[in-house]
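Fill in residues.
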């Protein structure tokens, strides 16, 4: 398919209206794209998130580790997380933590220089809680048998 105005419109419709959060941050970690799914998931309107640091949604105790990896990817232009799904906690506007899984797209210019990272993010908090409860129940049953 060639890039046409109709195809660009279609891409925009998909990105803006998918239920998952879709975002892009530049080389410095500044949010430059924030779709409606990100608004719902994190509680920040696009106008509030755009131009802000990713620290907006990164729990404080994980920021140093995040930025170390982020800038390493910006420097190297590669990450195994561009293939593998990444799991990480995130912060909502109200301060609550959610469990997320996301895939990353390393965005480069025509010369191969890193422009930033796009991510498609899903809130998996409910699944994580169910798995935690199931593991606890298994432990209880095993303890009762012992």
């Amino acid at each position: 398919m060639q890039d046409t105005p109709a195809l660009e419109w279609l891409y925009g419709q998909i990105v803006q209206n998918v239920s998952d959060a879709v975002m892009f941050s530049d080389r410095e970690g500044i949010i430059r794209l924030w779709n409606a799914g990100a608004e719902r998931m994190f509680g920040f309107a696009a106008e509030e998130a755009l131009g802000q640091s990713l620290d907006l949604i990164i729990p404080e105790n994980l920021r140093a580790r995040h930025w170390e990896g982020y800038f390493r990817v910006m420097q190297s232009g590669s990450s195994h997380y561009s293939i593998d799904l990444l799991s990480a906690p995130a912060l909502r506007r109200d301060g609550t933590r959610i469990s997320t899984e996301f895939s990353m797209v390393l965005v480069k210019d025509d010369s191969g220089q890193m422009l930033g990272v796009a991510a498609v993010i899903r809130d998996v908090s409910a699944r994580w809680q169910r798995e935690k409860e199931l593991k606890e129940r298994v432990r209880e049953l095993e303890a009762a048998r012992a």
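The longest helix spans residues 125-145.
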